[in-house]
Each structure stands twice: as structure tokens, then as C-alpha cells.
Design a protein that fits this description.
The protein has 117 residues and is mostly helical. It has four helices and no strands.
Length: 117
Amino acid sequence: MGFFQFVIIFILLSVLIERVIRKRLGIEKKKISETAGKNVDRWGRGIILVTFLATFSYFIDKDDEIVKWYWISYYVILMGFQTYIQWKYLKDSKEYILSLIFLVLGIVFLLSVDSVL
């Protein structure tokens, strides 16, 4: 199986898993942008993005394993921040549970990319 086929299958599985989890747990789709956490979310994501873009040039010419862990750490920090913001500002929602599940699935995906290439 090629890399692009793997990515397409992963995306399709993610959409399916999201729908099933939302239905089973009764999670309604809510957005941070509709809460008081809107600015905190934007600033936090911006700071995380700028930090990782600023350090990207240092890691790009390193060993593939180091680059992989760079992306895994970026994903964990970004999804961890998203999960925390959802937990804090969407108190009546279980949206953060979905983010936690996709945090784990994303890590599994990033760790398995080597075996597909």
C-alpha cells in the first residue's frame, strides 16, 4: 500500500470514527469561536504555530527519526492545547473527549508512517 492510499484510508477512517463516537457519546458539535475562549484559542494556536515554524529550519536537515519526533511533538502540543481549551470553555460538551481520541489516533498514524514509506 502506498503512502497516499494510506493517508486516504486514514482520513476516511477518521471521519467514520468521529461520526460513530459523536453518535454513541451524544456529542454535539460546538465551536470554541462561540465562547469566551475564542481569543485564547487564536493566540495559543498562533504562538504554537510561530514557535514550530521558527524551529523548523533547525530540524529539517536532521535525521528522519528526529523530524518524525518533531512533528509528533507539534501534534501533541497542538492537540493537547485544543483539548484543554475545549475542556475549559465548552463545559457542557464532551468535545474534548473526541479531541483526546484523535490525539491518540494521530500519534499512532505518525508513528506508523515509517512502515508505509
